[in-house]
Write a structure and sequence with these properties.
12% strand, 7 strands, Rossmann fold, single chain, 2 domains
Length: 297
């Protein structure tokens, strides 16, 4: 997915939101806006939005003199998700189809996205995710892939955001119960509220499955820029579960057995999915719709 003119407008909004989250200093907030304006002139329309975002967030981190301006909200997100974990896990294990329920929970957790939106009710969202309809639902295909587990299905699970990663662990647990061998991947370095190894450890993900980084500080998975270790895991995986919009935006043109799990919080992503899957134009608006979509090979 390439960067559109609407993405450029969104980058400016993200600069404003970052300033409001990171500092009360209006002078610094103004500098971030000015920085975003300069960045827009250099953004490469041939790259995906997350790849372009690296430059913007690097510039803002320099101005704020912080390698991780979102550190506080990341810790808060992890803590809030951990408080809900037991209740949500109980709903999963008592469901008629625990795997299906865990997928709902993992997608519901994708609401924790400080690049796309900053106002959300996590507890309300997690309760609602058990009954909400999917706009796209390729669960039968995913289930068919997983049911090959007796043959040794290798799953690469691409994590997205902090907090959300707590709920990812519940889905990974269900995948392992089905016989899958799962490796989880997080970002190498902090950017926005994306999960890094520190967050994986805080969520206890390392106690469930091996965890690697993708070798980048991109809020997505730009495969050509990822580490050799990650690329090897990607190539060897029988099934790739990709969480979040950033991973979709960077992998939407890759030819691999990818299942995208996310809530659609952006009209531009909604338009891209609509075109890719040839949906009716009014079916997907980018207002938080839940999606489980297999990559078209």
């Amino acid at each position: 997915m390439k960067t559109s003119l609407d993405c450029l407008i969104c980058f400016m909004r993200q600069a404003r939101s970052t300033g409001m989250l990171a500092t009360d200093d209006e002078h610094l907030q103004r500098r971030l806006i000015d920085c975003a304006g300069q960045f827009l002139a250099t953004a490469n329309p041939e790259l995906s939005p997350p790849e372009n975002a690296i430059g913007l967030y690097t510039m803002m981190a320099d101005i704020l003199k912080s390698e991780d301006p979102f550190a506080q909200v990341k810790h808060q997100s992890n803590a809030s998700a951990l408080l809900l974990k037991k209740e949500v896990e109980q709903q999963i294990v008592t469901a008629d189809d625990p795997l299906r329920a865990a997928i709902r929970v993992a997608i519901g957790g994708n609401i924790i996205d400080y690049a796309a939106q900053h106002v959300f009710d996590l507890e309300k969202t997690m309760k609602a995710c058990f009954t909400r309809e999917f706009v796209l639902d390729d669960y039968p295909s995913l289930l068919q892939t997983i049911q090959r587990a007796q043959e040794g299905v290798e799953v690469l699970y691409l994590c997205d955001n902090c907090g959300e990663i707590v709920f990812d662990a519940l889905l990974i647990d269900q995948l392992k119960r089905r016989g899958c061998r799962v490796t989880a991947a997080v970002r190498e370095t902090p950017i926005i509220n994306d999960a890094t190894m520190e967050d994986a450890l805080a969520a206890g993900l390392d106690k469930i499955c091996p965890v690697i980084t993708n070798g980048t500080g991109c809020p997505g998975t730009p495969l050509a820029e990822c580490s050799a270790q990650f690329q090897q895991h990607f190539s060897n995986a029988d099934c790739i579960i990709s969480k979040g919009m950033g991973n979709y935006e960077t992998l939407s043109d890759e030819q691999a057995n990818i299942y995208f799990l996310f809530t659609v919080k952006c009209p531009e992503v909604a338009r891209h999915v609509t075109a890719q899957r040839k949906l009716a134009k009014d079916r997907l608006q980018g207002t938080g719709e839940m999606i489980l979509m297999q990559q078209s090979l």
